[in-house]
Amino acid sequence: MLSNSKLKSIDDFYKYHNQVKEKIKETENVITVCCGTGCQASGSVEVLEALKEKIKTENIGVKVKPIVKSTGCHGFCSRGPLVILYPEGIYYQQVKLKDVEEIVEKTVKQGELINNLLYKDPLQKEKVSKAEEIPFYARQTRRVLQNIGEIDPFEIDEAIAHGSYQALVKALTSMSPQEVIEEVKKSGLRGLGGAGFPTGLKWQYCSSYPGEKYVICNADEGDPGAFMDRSLLEGDPHRVLEGMLLAAYAIGAKEGYIYIRFEYPLAVKTLHTAIAQARSLGLLGDNILGTDFSFDIKISTGAGAFVCGESTALMASLEGKVGRPRAKYIRSVEKGFRNSPSNLNNVETYANVPSIILKGWEWFAELGTEKSKGTKIFALTGSVNNVGLVEVPMGTSLRTIIYDIGGGTPKNREFKAVQTGGPSGGCIPKEYLDEPVDFERLTSLGSIMGSGGMIVMDQTNCMVDVARYFVHFLVEESCGQCTPCREGLVQMEEILNRITQGEGRLEDIDKLKDLGEVVGGFSLCGLGKSAPNPVLSTLKYFKHEYLEHIEEGFCRSGVCKKLFNFEIDPDKCTGCGLCKRKCPAEAISGEKKSPHKIEQNLCIKCGECYRNCNFDSIKPVPIKK
Amino acid sequence: MSECKCKQLEAQVDYNLLDKIIDEEYGGDKENLIMILQAIQKEYNYLPKDALVYLAEKLSLPISHIYEVVTFYASFSLKPRGKHIIQICTGTACHLKGSDKVVKELCSRLKVEPGETTEDGLFTIETVNCVGACALAMVSVVDGKYHPSTNQSEMNKIIEELSQGE
C-alpha cells in the first residue's frame, strides 16, 4: 500500500486513486503467476518463488525489472499453473518448476516464445500465445471476473487502480440510499446464490423496517462442484466488499458479516487482508471518506454444514448456534440475525452491484433474457476439456457453454447430461443442449440455476449412481428437524442403494416418485424442498438406466460395481499399455502392441482403465450368470 | 479388553492458551462459539473434553449447548485425530471420477472407517464435501496440502511416503 493513513474525504480518495494509477503505470513489465487454490495445488507457489528468485539474482539487462506477483484464480484451473508475461500478455500454461529457467532465459531476456508452454486448442490444434486468443476466454463476457488474474488480491492499491470503490464514491456523493435501491431494482439483478429473488426488492423491504440492520454475505458455497464464490473472494475481494458497502448505505446498516466456509482457507486469508487494508484507508469503519456513513465487516467461518447456506440457518450459525433453518412466516429482512432486519445476499450478487451503480442499470440490463439480466458465472467441471470458471450473459445456451467454451467432452466420449444447481438441482439430457440458461428455463427442465455449478457427465457416469450420490449427500446434511426431509431422504437412499446393488424392484420407481413428492412438498426449508430434484430429473430423462439396473442387472456406465465387468475389446486394443500402468490392482496383463486382458478376479472395478483408454476399447459388459 | 488407544493420544489442556483464545481473540463472546471451537481444534487437532467443559463455564453456556454445536458441524472432532490428516474430497466432480472407491479402498487398507484414526495414531481419514478445486478432481488434502488427481495409485504412494517418514 502507498499509504497507511486514512483517506478523510472524497478528494483524498481521488488523489489516492491517481497516485496508485501512476504507480501501476510505472511497472508495466510484470509477470503474474496465478495463485488460486487450483493453481496452488498444481505447484504455482513454488513456480512463483523460483521466478522471483531468478529475476532477483539475474542481471536481466532491461531497464525495468519485471516484477512477479501473484494473482487470484484465472478460472482456467485445469491448465494451471498459469504464468502471464506483460505487457505482451504471453500466456504460459501448465508451467512446472523446471520451466522457470527457460522462461527467464528465453522469453524475458530474448522475447522468444517457448512453444511447449503455449496453449493448444483441442479443436483448432493450433498453439496460441495470448489469453484472448483462447476460445475458453474469448467467448466469455467477463464483467464480474474482469479484474481477476490482473490484480494482486492482497494489494488494495491495485483494486483501487482498477476502479474499485468508485461506485461507493458515486453513491456517497450523488445518490440517496433510495436512489441506490431504485438503480438495483431497475437493473433486474436477482439473487445469484440460486434463489433468484430480485435483489433491489429485498433491499427495499429490509430498508423499510425499523431498528439496527445487518448486511450479510453468504459465502458458504456448499454446493459440491461450485467454486465461483471462492474464486471471486480469492481474486477480487474488494468488489464484494464494495457491494456490501453499497447495500449497507442503501438499507442503512452499520455492521456486516461475511459467513464463509472454513474449507476455503485461502479465501478467508484474502478477505482478512482485504478488510484490514480497507479499514486502514478508511473505506470501512466510522465516517467513511469523511461522510457520516459508517460501516464495518466481520468474518465468520462456517464449520462444515451444507444447510448453513440456507439464509435462516446461516444467521443462526452466525449467532454461534446450530444451523437449523426456521419457518419463514416472518422474513429475515424483517427479523433475521439477532432478531433484527437483515439483508443477506450471495457473494456473486454483491459483486455485481458496484458496476450497476457506476455504469447504470441500463448497462447491466442490456445483457440477459427477459427475466434474468446480466451475466452469470458457472463453475464448469466434470467431463469437459476446459474445466474452470465461465462468465456468460444469462440466456447463453448450454451448448455454447459446454462445447464452445468448455471444449466438449474429453476423448470424444459421448455427452450424457449436465447437472446444474448442486444437490438441489437436476440432470439435463442432450436433447436440451440448445436451451438458453436462465432461472426460468432451468426450473422448467426440472433443474435449477442454483449457485452455478455445472457438471458435465458422459457415458462413464451412471445416472442412478448420481441420484444416489446426491441423496446420500443430503441425508448426511439434513439438519433433521422436519420429518419429510429426515426420514423421507433415508428411505429414498435405501431404495437407490438397493437399485445400484442389483436388488432393485420394479415398484421402486413409483415409490421413489411418491417419496420425492412428499419430501419436496412438505419439507420446511429449501434443502428438503429441492432434495428430490436429482432423483426426479434422472427418473424423467434416464428412466431406461433405472430399468436396466433393475430388470437386467446391468450398469452400462461401469459404475455400480456389482452390475458389470470390464472387458477389453481385442479388435480395438492397440496394446499401448496405458491401462496396465494405470491399474492400481495389477489386474491387466498383455504384451506391448498386442491386445491386453483384464483378470476379473483381481479387478477392483475402479474404472481407471475405462476412463483413461484412448481407443475406446474397454467396455462394461453384463456379468455372465 | 485393552484400553482404547486413543486415550493415549489425549491432550493436556493449557488453560492459559484457552483464555487467550476465548478472551483475547474472540472477546469472550458467545456468538463466536464456532470460531472459538475451530481455534481450539486447530491447537489440539480435536476438541478435548476438558477444554469444552472450561469453555462452557467461561461463556456461561450449558455444556449441552456446546455439545450440540460440536456434533452438528461436520468439521469438529471429539476424538484425538491422527498425526496425518487425509481428507478426500467427495464433491460431485471428484465422485464422478470415483473418489468413493478411493475412500473405500484406503479405509480397508488402513482398517478404519471414514472419520476414524488408525490404531497407531498415524492417519485420520476424513471425507469432505467439495474443497472447490474441481478442476483437479479427484482432490485430496493431506495435512493441509492439496493433491490433484489422487486416484488409487497416487493415494497408495502418499500413504507409503508418509509411513516411511515415521
What does this structure look like?
Chain A has 625 residues and is α/β, with parallel strands linked by helices. Chain A folds into five domains: 24-134, Glutaredoxin; 163-365, NADH-ubiquinone oxidoreductase 51kDa subunit (Rossmann fold, 3-Layer(aba) Sandwich), CATH 3.40.50.11540; 375-458, Ubiquitin-like (UB roll) (Roll); 463-552, NADH-ubiquinone oxidoreductase 51kDa subunit, iron-sulphur binding domain (de novo design (two linked rop proteins)), CATH 1.20.1440.230; 564-621, Alpha-Beta Plaits (2-Layer Sandwich). Helices cover 40% and strands 14% of the residues of chain A. Chain A has 25 helices and 19 strands. Chain A has a five-stranded mixed beta sheet. In chain A, a hairpin with a 3-residue loop joins strand 3 (83-86) and strand 4. In chain A, helix 10 (228-235) runs parallel beside helix 12 (265-280) and helix 19 (483-500) runs antiparallel to helix 20 (508-522). Chain A starts with 9 loop residues before the first helix and ends with a strand. Chain B is elongated. The model of chain B has no long low-confidence stretch (mean pLDDT 90). In chain B, helix 4 packs across helix 5. Chain B is an alpha+beta fold. Chain B has two domains: 6-72; 84-164, Glutaredoxin (3-Layer(aba) Sandwich). In chain B, strand 3 and strand 4 (145-147) form a beta hairpin. Chain B has a four-stranded mixed beta sheet, covered by helices on one side. The chains are: A alpha/beta (625), B alpha+beta (166). The interface between A and B is large, with 63 and 47 residues.
Fold topology:
The complex is a heterodimer of chains A (625) and B (166).
Chain A: H1 10-26, E1 30-34, H2 37-41, H3 44-57, E2 67-71, E3 83-86, E4 90-92, H4 99-110, E5 119-120, E6 127-128, H5 135-138, H6 156-161, H7 166-174, H8 177-187, H9 199-208, E7 214-219, H10 228-235, H11 237-251, E8 255-260, H12 265-280, E9 296-301, H13 311-318, E10 342-346, H14 347-359, H15 361-365, E11 375-382, E12 388-393, H16 398-405, E13 415-420, E14 426-429, H17 439-444, E15 453-458, H18 463-477, H19 483-500, H20 508-522, H21 526-530, H22 533-541, H23 543-552, E16 565-568, H24 578-582, E17 588-589, E18 597-598, H25 608-612, E19 618-621
Parallel strand pairs in A: 1-2, 7-8, 7-10, 8-9, 11-15
Antiparallel strand pairs in A: 1-3, 3-4, 5-6, 11-12, 13-14, 13-15, 16-19, 17-18
Helix pairs in contact in A: 7-11, 7-14, 8-9, 8-11, 10-11, 10-12, 11-14, 18-19, 19-20, 20-22
Chain B: H1 6-9, H2 15-25, H3 33-44, H4 49-59, H5 63-72, E1 84-89, H6 92-96, H7 99-110, E2 123-128, E3 140-142, E4 145-147, H8 152-164
Parallel strand pairs in B: 1-2
Antiparallel strand pairs in B: 1-3, 3-4
